[in-house]
Specification:
mainly alpha; 63% helix; 0% strand
């Protein structure tokens, strides 16, 4: 093999190795940052729909929840809260009931009162969250 031929072969091998490493790094970073973007999207959705809930029930109380649940706009709000609050970890009262749908508008399950109050605690006015029944 002549000198010119081995130089081209070595260059091709180095390019193939470089592309393999670049592809592996790109895949790794897309996985890491993709999860972060999803979390940011979920938190933004939680903020948006907890705000929508509070516009309908500004005191976060049982009777307010009942009136929100009975209205058409409230039904949509509670469905979106089911989607977002169920996917965010840390809310034991919110089950991931809409985990199979890809978009919050496709969720058909209404969030229960405990889930809404648990998920939207930060957005409810201070002291308005219903107290848990006292143990006897």
């Amino acid at each position: 093999m002549s000198k010119g031929m081995s130089l081209a072969l070595e260059t091709i091998i180095i390019l193939i190795l470089s592309l393999t490493v670049f592809t592996a790094l790109t895949y790794f970073f897309n996985l890491q940052f993709g999860r972060g973007q999803t979390t940011v999207d979920l938190l933004n959705g939680q903020r948006e729909w907890c705000g929508a809930y509070l516009r309908q029930d500004n005191k976060c109380i049982q009777t307010g929840y009942d009136s929100v649940k009975s209205s058409k706009e409230g039904q949509e709000t509670l469905k979106r809260l089911t989607f977002y609050c169920g996917r965010i970890q840390g809310y034991p009262n919110c089950q991931p009931l809409c985990s199979t749908v890809g978009d919050s508008s496709q969720c058909k399950i209404v969030a229960e009162k405990d889930c809404v109050f648990d998920c939207c605690t930060l957005y409810c006015p201070a002291g308005t969250r219903p107290k848990a029944p006292a143990a006897k």
